[in-house]
Amino acid sequence: xxxxDELRAARPAHLGDQPVDERTRAAELTRAxxxxxxxxxxxxxxxxxRPVWSLGLAGAAAATAAAVxxxxxxxxxxxxxxxxxxxxxxxxxxxxxxxxRDVLLAAAGSAESRPEGRGAYWHTTSVxxxxxxxxxxxxxxxxxxxxxxxxxxxxxxxxWSRGQSLGAHPVTDEDRAAWEQAxxxxxxxxxxxxxxxxxxxxxxxxxxxxxxxxAPLLDGDxxxxxxxxITMKDLxxxxxxxxxxxxxLEAAYDGHGTESADEEMSADVWLFKVGVGLVxxxxxxxxxxxxAFRMLAGLDGVRVTENVTDxxxxxxxxxxxxxxxxxxxxxxxxxVFDVATGRALARENVVVKPGGLQAGLEPxxxxxxxxxxxxxxxxxNFKG
Amino acid sequence: MTDxxxxxxxxxxxxxxxxxxxxxxxxGRQVADEVVSETFAIAWRRLDxxxxxxxxxxxxxxxxxxxxxxxxxxxxxxxxxxxxxxxEGDVADxxxxxxxVLRALAALHEDDRxxxxxxxxxxxxxxxxxxxxxxxxxxxxxxLHRARKRLKEAMEAAEPALPPIPAxxxxxxxxx
Lengths: 384, 176
Fold this sequence. Notes:
Shape of chain A: globular
Number of domains of chain A: 1
Number of strands of chain A: 13
Mean pLDDT of chain A: 78
Distance between the termini of chain A: 59 Å
Number of helices of chain B: 9
Oligomer: heterodimer
CATH class of the largest domain in chain B: Mainly Alpha
Number of strands of chain B: 0
């Protein structure tokens, strides 16, 4: 007998074609599809993607959003919402009669006068949180992850990232009691009815390992995605005039959303998302950061909420848009920032009308957030 | 579901266990799920680059993930445990010859074992196998030829560690 044939016949049974168990399948598919796809149309200009550290079904849900519309209430103050009973989840919101425009212009002034440092790498540290409802037991858990990024100023370098899941925990004492009642499972299955079926995945409660990744810059020089992939040089040379900046950004808008070519998105929502991305954690000059705030102030449907507390407990002001997403649900995408410095504190998603992945969460709940702990130029790379 | 998600899910269902089995044969079971998960995360991001059939491409990605993320000593230890499990199966349920082949395979160098497993267990052609390990088809054929020879030698050299299992006697005969 041919040794290859003998070897074929000797394959251990567990290495054969047994089906994968359903939990593993759901978790792996969800984890994979949580990251943005590199668009089919722009194969040659793949999108610069940042690593996703938490499992992020949230991201998957956002990425498959089929339709996003903007509420056209102009710069009117936000409608007061029901305050959830569980205040641990909710931010304190007090709407004031100051126009969105005035607040953003104040932030623009602050941002412009904030000096930037120097260094070989742009370094950011952030903590992401995702709120989930356990499929069995209905209690809520908060999944937390920490991530750091180093982006080189010079072309030809590598981006470095370091991330770790900090584990999940029941949100309130009530949730903890329900989790214990369920036998204190170390892995929680969460599910969401979405268009295209129920999505399920498993959230481990324990802290994960620290993972470091590095990769050459896309095409050797692309560092961020701003509607298109851009180099550090592009980013540093963005127009510092709000109208010209808007025009520059809008050139990359083609009617669909920021995460998927399958969703439609209005130009103003798109500009909001791209513009907020820019002011949140990209190394633009103070003048461009100011211009971006001024541009946001000119968009339709952008609202401002004062006295918001971010997921790290910091006080700030929120600028937001509201979106209809599959589920169906209505969600608010907001940037929490400090008006006095023009500094971004957190990007958050708030439940306005529960549904889909957010079914079982009360209106006003922040179900997903990324808090920026630190952003600045440094000469130390990941080893430093 | 979008077309991309549909295609990806189909590819996952078709290839996931094959990728897992390949990783297990390279690095044992402990790290396999982690490596497989990362491999498919990469496949999703780079879906436009994934050819048909996808398996050789996926195995190549898994191979790189393994090399870049799992420390060599962790891999060696985990693999040693896996190889022991292959050859220490419940003898009563195993066929002697099968154990002998697996022992011979376990005794080979890692590179030989990889080539043989790709061809015998995953059904890859030399061209596909060459893609996975990153060499030319011609070089792969040469390596396969040598690995096959060494497997045969290892099988012949191995002492018949276990006596041949006698054929099951017909009980009715015995009792009659």
